[in-house]
Amino acid sequence: MPPKKEVVAAAQGDAHIDPDQTLKASKALLSHIKKASKQKSETSEKKNILDEIEDDGSLTLAETPVWMTLTTKRHIVDTNRLKPAKIPLPHPLHTNTHESICLITADPQRAYKDIVASEEFPAELRSRITRVIGYTKLRAKFRQYEAQRQLYASHDIFLGDDRIVNRLPKALGKTFYKTTAKRPIPVVLRQSRPKAKAKGKRAPKRKGEEEEEVNAASPKEIAAEIQKAIGSALVALSPSTNTAIKVGYASWNPEQIAENVQVIAAALVEKHVPKKWSNVKSIYIKGSETTALPIWQTDELWLDEKDVIADSEAPQPIEQAEKANVGKKRKALDAGKEMTRKGPLSKKQKLPESNDDTLLKQIAETKSKLRKQKEKAKKALDD
Length: 383
What we know:
Layout: H1 6-13, H2 19-43, E1 65-72, E2 85-88, E3 101-105, H3 109-117, H4 123-128, E4 129-134, H5 135-141, H6 145-154, E5 157-161, H7 168-172, H8 174-177, E6 185-187, H9 219-230, E7 232-235, E8 242-249, H10 254-272, E9 280-287, E10 293-297, H11 330-342, H12 356-382
Parallel strand pairs: 3-4, 3-5, 5-6
Antiparallel strand pairs: 1-8, 1-9, 2-7, 9-10
Helix pairs in contact: 2-10
């Protein structure tokens, strides 16, 4: 095995995305999406009456998403995480005031309905929250599959109290959790209390607070938490080496896409990727029907030297067993097997020593190919 290259590993840990490269890729991607949309609207014979046409003749790009894909060398997590993580963005994704919100709360339901209907709650946000439902009512009313489908189709965004969000997969089923489009976003609706210093004692309650009083935050705090949740990028982690996150829409400016990509990539790697940048293989941006444009690629294909298997350590193919002769009798075959079993066992042959020079040569060739591919992709973006 070749010796570890500590210099290269240290460089990978300090790697960051080039903002100029991100902006250049964003401009190229948005230009391609707009051009392809215009060609599609001109060539399509049957036009959908619901499609809106822009001034330049292309279809509306307001609902065409732009994705950032991050590829790692090893899996980020071992199991599917149904509770999405949130990354605050400089340019929020859900800015459309016509998108309806369904708020799923802990019991009792009436307390949170009163908070949303109060005068302290922002009127603009209140108009978007079209339904407030408690967990008990949710399980009783939307137990059937058809009722869950109607609930799924009647709202654009679903928010779930973080105290009961882990119980929602069982209550809502595959209607909501088959895809990541409308999974409930966790929000903190409870009131934060100071921790008790003495062990075994509860935190002090406010004057006049009863034992059964609802543990809910103020209307301003709940409104701020909801605004933060709908303005964040959602990260659905799964046991895979590829993670896709929505960073914007094709109708945005390239600068807005680039700024969101920079923030999401840095937060995703620092908070959710084990071993940080040394485990990141590549970062791309793409549209729904486009090829991925590279933003950042690593020179090392593996995370650790242990991941590389030398030729001498590679598992040898199992020799195929000799096919039995159909013309012979079964007794003769069984007798032959017994004879081979009773014979002396052959000693294990020693494996040949590894050739480090050959392995180093293969590694150098692989690195040179990667550099040529990156230079070719960079020239294509410049053109």
